[in-house]
Each structure stands twice: as structure tokens, then as C-alpha cells.
Design goal:
The protein contains 4 helices and 11 strands; from the N terminus they run E-E-H-H-E-E-H-E-E-E-E-E-E-H-E. The protein has helices spanning about 40-45, 50, 90-95, 160-175; strands at about 5, 35, 55-70, 70-75, 100-105, 110-115, 120, 130-135, 140, 150-155, 180. The structure holds fe (ii) ion.
Length: about 180
């Protein structure tokens, strides 16, 4: 069974993220979001670095702070046309679900994931929360949840740590998981 979505067993209780006012804006492909890069300073100042330490990244290639400005139609997060390092796409595909996301603010039921047959309305156990999404094959959309804030992270993962994270989180949140039909 292909896992598409799962909340993660991560402690985000000390996270109080505020974006750096001088942060660099991200590309225009994010028409549905006001998106900006997260600097090392903003990460350390907000406690985000302590959350990132719990995630199995060996190298982060993209980290954005995103504020939702309208409902988001169906899409995939990682597509071949995107700017990526050589081998990054294959790495992500080999470890899917490999798209780590942190919801900072917003409703727990905004995200829907297409399981190949129907749209499944996902429920986060709480907000803030961390979840993992299959970023190359899980079509997903968001209902209007204006001001919803998320942290988007892409990069390379330690396979063992990643698998352990999925296993541990499945044990806790299996009722929230969405699988490909
Ligand atoms: Fe997305």
C-alpha cells in the first residue's frame, strides 16, 4: 500500500514562528501563497531549528514559510519541471512519502488528498502539527483557510531515520493516514 499522508509524532509545542521582515520572497509559482524563504536566523530565533532537529533531514534544499491567500486547487508539490539538484527527484521518489510539512496556524481539516478514487478530507490531530505528504504522487488541495501558515521543507533524508519516523507516527496516527486506493 502506498502511503500518501500521515501526521507525524513530532513535538512542536515550543514553536513560535514569526517570519523575518527582511526574508526573501519565493517564486511566482506559488500564486496561492505569500511565500518566503526561511533564514537560519529566523529558524533559530523561533525554535524552528529544534523542530527540524527531530526530522530526518541530512540536507535541506528548500525551506519556505507560506501564508495562504486563497483556496488551493489540486496539484502535486514536487514535479519534474521544478528546479532541483541532480538526483534529488530520484532520492525523494525512493523514499516517498517524503514531503515534510509543518502547519503553524490554520484549521485542522483544510487539506484534502486524492487517493486515486476519491478525495479524502484529512484531519490533523492538532495545530500546530507536522505531517508528511507523498510529494510526487499525492494530488492534494486546500479549502479556503486564509492566513493558514505552513513551513514547506524539501531535501535529502536519512532513510533509516525517515522509516523510523513513519513507523512511529503510524503507530500513533494510523487512523489519520491516507493510502493510495
Ligand atoms: Fe501542496
Amino acid at each position: 500500500m502506498t502511503l500518501l499522508f500521515l501526521p507525524l509524532d513530532i513535538d512542536v509545542s515550543n514553536l513560535k514562528f514569526t517570519q523575518d521582515s527582511e526574508s526573501t520572497k519565493a517564486g511566482s509559482w506559488m500564486d496561492y501563497w505569500d511565500a518566503s524563504f526561511v533564514s537560519e536566523k529566523a529558524s533559530v530565533d523561533s525554535g524552528l531549528d529544534q523542530v527540524l532537529k527531530q526530522l530526518p533531514f541530512t540536507k535541506i534544499t528548500r525551506i519556505f514559510h507560506k501564508v495562504q491567500t486563497t483556496a488551493v486547487p489540486s496539484h502535486l508539490d514536487v514535479q519534474p519541471k521544478m528546479i532541483m539538484e541532480p538526483g534529488e527527484m530520484d532520492h525523494i521518489k525512493s523514499l516517498e512519502p517524503a514531503g515534510y510539512r509543518i502547519v503553524l496556524k490554520g484549521q485542522a481539516d483544510s487539506l484534502s488528498v486524492y487517493n486515486g478514487k476519491e478525495w479524502i478530507n484529512t484531519i490533523l490531530p492538532s495545530v500546530p502539527c507536522c505531517y508528511v505528504l507523498n510529494s510526487t504522487s499525492a494530488y492534494h488541495k486546500l479549502k479556503e483557510d486564509l492566513g493558514r501558515e505552513t513551513i514547506y521543507i524539501r531535501g535529502y533524508l536519512d532513510p533509516e531515520g525517515h522509516n523510523a519516523m513513519i513507523e512511529r507516527s503510524l503507530a500513533k496516527y494510523k487512523d489519520h493516514a491516507v493510502y493510495k486506493y
